[in-house]
Design brief:
78% helix, 162 residues, mainly alpha, 0% strand, 5 helices
């Protein structure tokens, strides 16, 4: 009997590095009758561990439902967090747009003329609203890009953490 080989396989077994074939070899070696006295305890431990690994572990009742509930809650929290970030960006963009419109309104030159023709007033109003709409759309597009980037970063972080 090769005691050194048994000790080497036992060491690998305790470190969870053995293959199935090595475990079969170890089982066969430990089942032989002429095992040194100092390996008797290892024999008992090996067979107890091997038998325990084949015994199915009962699943606690309701475990699957509790895990599903926790997963759903986590998903809702992440969705709420992403929604909150997007809402903050929208609020910030809106404030910046309003500040820009306010500054441009108050910085108009003193040579403004009074418009008395309703058609001309209507056309100027349409131009101002179109400009405002374009500016708002550009801001929202940038906000969407920033939000997508934030979601991508969060996804990467979550993948690295889990």
């Amino acid at each position: 009997m090769d005691t050194a080989k048994i000790e080497q396989l036992l060491q690998r077994f305790y470190e969870a590095q053995t293959t199935d074939e090595e475990e079969r070899q170890l089982r066969a070696m430990l089942q032989s009758g002429d095992l040194p006295q100092h390996l008797q305890g290892d024999r008992e431990l090996f067979f107890q561990l091997a038998d325990a690994s084949r015994t199915p572990i009962p699943q606690p009742e309701g475990l699957e439902q509790r895990l599903s509930k926790l997963i759903d809650e986590q998903a809702e929290r992440q969705h709420a967090r992403h929604f909150s970030i997007r809402r903050r960006w929208i609020a910030a963009a809106s404030v910046l747009i309003l500040i820009g419109v306010g500054i441009s309104y108050f910085n108009q030159s003193s040579t403004t003329k009074e418009i008395t023709d309703p058609q001309e007033a209507y056309e100027m109003t349409c131009q101002a609203l179109a400009l405002f709409s374009n500016t708002l759309n550009e801001g929202m597009a940038q906000l969407d890009q920033a939000s997508d980037a934030a979601i991508e970063v969060q996804t990467t972080i979550n993948a690295l953490l889990h």
